[in-house]
């Protein structure tokens, strides 16, 4: 059996269940080439009780995207054991509550595009049936809408769409690789949040920003607020867009 991909609408149904009782359990956590979004990293580093810089050093690899010229982050895998995820155990995922968005969506794939004219995000969904996966042959029947709610993926999609807007701006306004300074700024604001936070307050990066008086406190104590500000800061600093 070959892998099969079929499009689905929000109210279309599919069948899926994954438990320790099926023989393919944990197979989807091997042979990985796992990209991490900024929000994935935020959730994972907090789940593990690590600073963002330690998490990135210990569990990830940094590359430059061949098409975007932007820094991208991938999860380090165990090459000695079929390139398996560092968080998979015999009993399943040890970071399950904060697993990345692509893991949450599986077996669905979300493809999103943003209109340059209106900023409206259009979603498309596809069902991936992999040859090794028995989960698509059993279990509960879901609509796409029900699966998104059940897997608590809406917040991931919201944050990932903000990041997608930055990628679109980069491709349109600043083609090619970033210079070293711009690459570091992008990396801090999008991926290395704890370093970004220290720069905000140690180097007064808020100077010139007309912010609500409550914002500095939120940036010190709320990682989601910090990441959203990081996206705004990248758009303003690198692309001159507010």
Number of helices: 9
How would you spell out the order of helices and strands?
A: EEEHHEEEEHEEEHHHHHH
Shape: globular
Could you give a short account of the major beta sheet?
Answer: 3 strands, antiparallel
Report the mean per-residue pLDDT as an integer: 91
Strand content: 15-25%
Radius of gyration: 19 Å
Number of strands: 10
Number of domains: 2
Structural class: alpha+beta
What is the CA-CA span between the terminal residues? 49 Å
Task: Tell me the strand order in the biggest sheet.
Answer: 1-9-8
Q: How helix-rich are the residues, as a percent range?
A: 25-40%
Low-confidence stretches: none
Descriptive overview:
- The structure is a single chain.
- Helices cover 39% and strands 18% of the residues.
- With 242 residues, the protein is of the alpha+beta class.
- The chain has 2 domains: 159 residues, no CATH class; 76 residues, no CATH class.
- The protein has a 3-stranded antiparallel β-sheet with strand order 1-9-8. A 3-stranded antiparallel β-sheet has the order 3-5-4.
- Helix 8 packs across helix 9.
